[in-house]
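Researcher: Next sequence.
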Amino acid sequence: MIAADPRALSWYEASARQRVAALLDAGSFREVLGPAERRMSPHLPLFDLPRAFDDGIVVGGGTLNGRRVLVAAQEGRFMGGAFGEVHGAKLVGLLRAAPGVKPEAVLILFDTGGVRLQEANAGETAIAETMRAIADCRAAGIPVIGLIGGRAGCYGGGGLIAGTCSGLAVSESGRISVSGPEVIETNKGAEEFDSRDRALVWRTMGGKHRYLIGGADAFAEDTPAAFRDAALALIGQAPAFDLAVMEAEQARLEARLTRFGDARDGHDVWASLGINDPDAVPSMTTDDFRAVADPRREAARDAR
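Model: Next structure:
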C-alpha cells in the first residue's frame, strides 16, 4: 500500500524497501549488495523455486534523525522472509561490520517465518551467527534494535534473534514466537492450538500480548513514523550488556514463568496483570491500550 506521504503508509502492508525509505532520513539510505549485484541463493534452483536478486533482505546504512545507523529489512513477500544462506550472510555481514563502522545503532526490520526448509542447515547456521554477531555489537556498545510489524511476523530463528536484541518495538499486527501456529498444530494437534483461530494467534503471539508480558519494549502504531519514534527512544534506553543485565533478565523470565505458568490463554494473563476487562484488549485503540497496559505490564528491558 503506497501512501502519498511515505511516512504515513502501513508498515504491515509495505515492502522492505518502502519501510527503509520511510523510516530513515529522506535520501540517506545507501544499500550494500543490492539487486544489481544479484547475490542470490544457489540452492533454490535445485527445487525449481524462483530467486530474488536481493535474496529477500535489504541491508545498508543511513541516518535516523541525523544519527548514523546500519539497517537490515527482511522482505516477507519473498518466501515469507525466511533465512537462507545468502539472506543470512547479508545480515551477519552487516552486524559484523558494525563494530568497525561504529554506528549509533543497528536496526533490524523483522519480517520472517523462520528458516527455509530448502536451506535448513545454512539457515540454522545463519541464525546462530546472527545471534553471536548481535552479542558482539552489544558488547562493543552498539545497540541493536528490532522492529516487528510485518505480514510474516517474527517466527522461528527470527524469534530467537529478536530475543538477543537490545530492545524491541512491536505493533498490534506484529507477532513474535519461536514456533508458529501451524508448527504447533502440526506437532500437537488442533486441540492444543488451532492455527486457523486468528484471535487465539494474536492473543498468544501478537503485539499487544508481547508488550503486556514484557516481551517487547515499545508498542507502536502501524506507521513508519511511529516505528521511527520508537526506534529513537529505544536507542536512548538501550541497557548495558554485562553479567548483571543477563542475570536480571534470567530472574525476570523465571518470575514470569512462575506468575503465568498455569495460564491457559492470553485472557488469563491479562486478568492476572489487573486488566478488568481482558476481552476488550484486542479491540482497544493504541492510545486506550497504552493507557491500560503501561501501569500494569510486566517490566520491560528498559526498566531492568
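Model: Strands lie at 30-32, 57-64, 67-74, 105-110, 144-148, 154-155, 167-171, 176-177, 218-220. The CA atoms of residues 50 and 140 lie 39 Å apart.
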